[in-house]
Please model this.
Amino acid sequence: MQADAAAGQPAAEQQRRVFKKASPSGDLMVYLPKRDFYDHGTHVDRIDGMLTYEPMLEPRFGLERKVFARLNVTIRYTDDAADNKVPLLLKDLYVSTICVAPAAQDRSKWTSVQKKLAAKLGDRGYAFSFVIPAGLPDAISLFLPRVDPDIQHGCEYKLLFYAADSEKGPMQKESTVNLTIRKLSYQHIPQIIRKPFAHTEQKAMLSSGSVHAEADLDKEVYFHGDDIVINLNVNNQSTRTVKSITVSIQQLAHMKIEGPNRTFNSTAKTYPALLETKTGCPIKPGMQSAFSYKMKFSFDESRLERNTALAWHVRGAEKQLAASSMLVLDKERCPPGLCITYAVKIKLILTGMGGDAVLKMPFMLANFPPPKKDKSSPTKAPVEKQASAGTLSAIAAAEADVKNNGVQLPFVDEEDDDDDLDFMFEEFVRSRADKMFAN
Model:
């Protein structure tokens, strides 16, 4: 009996997770195949989903109402040092609203997942699609320890579904659905990557000679959880002494918002990793020394300071630092919103006057490639684990696949075309209707 029952069920590898969320009254239900959407440089993943609308209110509220969908990209920042905690910056970077129901349904542009969902939902299913424009920042949150932890500050991507008589008409809270999604950057990783290198020469103020220092990293691109190997060589040809060495990972979060009346321009400098050591010191005049440091670059071992940029957190996802922005931080080229860069900073603390010797080596923290389903080996380790081992084989394979099959345009159906595909539905959050009508 158990074997017969198992035979009637779809195989585990043939199930696809679909997120769903219902309005408080239960009349509006939204289905979304994924909540992470990647910017590939040439295009951004299209947001495709389905919804059902069965008005359960009075006829004068339900029969003639339409269902609208809105994509809202908002940046929010609060000065947590202030007492009132009023948002210092609250601006919509992008807003797009479409009418989903009733509306003409062009099935030729539906993805395979939308078609399979429509087959399950029947005539009451309506498809919706959004295209995220290029140039918008990733979904990033800023760590503010003195504000409400349930409210994330930074760049937020949100989908709003509501029933109303018109696009700007009043909406009933009982017939609205809010979904938080994430936009992530999938950066092109070349096969040959240069090693970051830096050299400095710190001269003495009242004497001849100087301190020569040079450093390099083992690679330029890192993934969450990788070890950063730092090599340092010091040649002291001055009369000063190197007392100690400080090695840190510096994160710059540049926020730039241009408004009609003023421009909000601010840069937050934080240090997710910091190492202060006197090992091998003092380095006296005439001495040469070589050092090698290894720093773990992960969220669990990071120093969370005020304004540290993190990837926008959603339920069930691992917390991690924000990845580097695809554009280089520059006053004239920085995109609107949040721009993130990283660098390894080495500081040699010297005796006497003349300042300390400082070296900086920029590097890139990249997101893992988008997960790709493998029918032949459903138990295969995910790409994230392969990449975190310190190799770029998974990235190279993904790039080769895109190169061989051509660039995937926004309207190309990238979903699984297996006719036997079944869905495993997962709630975005616990149904609010259960809370409302529990008593």
Observations:
- Residues 14 and 418 are 8 Å apart (CA to CA).
- The first helix runs from residue 2 to 7.
